[in-house]
Amino acid sequence: MKILVPVKRVVDYNVKVRVKADGTGVETSGVKMSMNPFDEIAVEEAVRLKEKGVATEIVAISMGVAACAETIRTALAMGADRGILVESDADLQPLAVAKLLKAIADKEQPGLIILGKQAIDDDMSATGQMLAALLGWAQGTFASKVVVEGDHALVTREVDGGLETVKLALPAIVTTDLRLNEPRYASLPNIMKARKKPIETIKPADLGVDPAPRLTVLKVVEPAKRQAGVKVGSVAELVAKLRTEAKVI
Amino acid sequence: MDFALTPDQEAVREAVARICRRFDDAYWLAHDRDGIFPHELLQALAADGWLGICIPEEYGGSGLGITEAAIMMQAVAQSGAAMSGASAIHMNIFGLNPVVKFGTDAQKHRMLPPLVAGREQACFGVTEPDAGLDTTRLKTRAEKHGDRYVVHGQKIWTSTAQVAHKILLLARTTPIERVGRKTEGLSLFYTTLDRSRAEVRAIDKMGRKAVDSNQVFFDGMEIPEEDRIGEEGRGFEYILHGLNPERILIAAEAVGVGLVALERATAYARERVVFGRPIGQNQGIQHPLAESWMELEAARLMVMNAAWHYDTGRPAGAAANAAKYLAAEAGFKACTAAVMTHGGFGYAKEYHVERYLREIIIPRLAPVSPQLVLCYIAERVLGLPRSY
Asked: Which residue of A1, A122, A231, B376 lies most exposed, with the fewest beta carbons within 10 A?
């Protein structure tokens, strides 16, 4: 079975993001970029399935500027076999990404596509679900456990009430939650091997997809700074303030 | 001219930093107290192949350059492991370069893979109490008896000899009176440190307690002929080949120690409130830290420059010596500033910066004194007459 794992290049989770002066987005030039952490979990899960003998090949896919090849290289160092870079300078929104992924899935015929449940930059949490709809495949989102048995997969999902297990007919879509696994570090020999693994570069047009954005971002602003708190002297004072100032009781 | 790290180099730094993150301040504080060798760090790095970073691929390594090794060693030191972490693996990273360069294929297959895998550790037996940097005057002698050599003599500042299985040993095989030039007649061996014929005595020292430094006394230790590296009498020449890379790595480690000290000081300056404002708002606190950043960054660039010289086959002596000098001095200044920024707390072990200050003395002193670096630059770069 072949597994596709899309990996997104995002601002590193340790970086304190700054909004661009013109309000069009966040500053990414000169900022450390890394693989979306949920996608690392997806790669790890695919590699574990390969180690168990369930998967035979893992293809890492990234979309965007040429530097996304580095993100693919990280996935290759973790254990993916080859990469596909869909190179585009366009602002790639979830629907466009889902359409591009569908076109790749049609060609590659994977048994499973594992995606991060969301990217930490825009927090859309949409691509996996859209892709499932476009392909007409079953989906197990926010997975905390994945077991592949024969022609189906059992996916345990973290839901409000507890854990829910769904049975999906393969091929299927899985999106990863934080507790699915702990991604491995790339070892030095694997970093070296990753250099020699192939990355194919294609354009959206090669897949017959128009990636033009459908949504317009009007403005990006910094969240309001938290005001300093006040200390109250007694419970009575607290209750009075909640009633007269905060007007919540 | 491109000053950015390549994606592979970024990957090296990132992966090493992630491994080192498992060894936190509490780990190093405990090892600084009990003096136990940080075996866990060495094994963690060995498990992911990091000890073989400079060893050719056919012997189990990855065949990368000194540039990548320097990036790795800076990351180790900068994690807070400082010299206790760096010195624990330093010998594995580049110490066996003479074997790589001058060993036979059979020797390389025998000697290198166990070191890469972390199954064996090695120490470096060159310095002697009465020779110091005047290496050709060393007195340890290895006499040939049939197919083996018998060693008598004494080495000093042999790091990790308490835990090492092997020793890279430089000894005189032809008496100095019988050679044309004093650099001749020394031979290099990589052999088992036979503790029944070699006594290892730890030196109690200022810092880096977890990684031992020793005096080693050889009393008839036998070395089979097949453990001699290269030709008899040419050992000094072989050792020289590894000196520049060693300086580059030590310099990278010093930059790492300086940077972690600076990180700690900056974080403290931001949080510590006195007279109603963070102390980091005061220029008296800011300026020494800003100065340290500039000096460390300049030293780091010199380290990378020296590594580039070496990796591209250019003469690297001037840059490697300059990098080691600049990095050690910048690191020392940063560690001092870090302690002073912490005020009284800087003197307390639980703030860690005093340990960095004790450990940063090592790259100032070793492997060559700052004064001899200045002499080297004056003589070899500026063309002034030799002063010593």
From this structure: A231
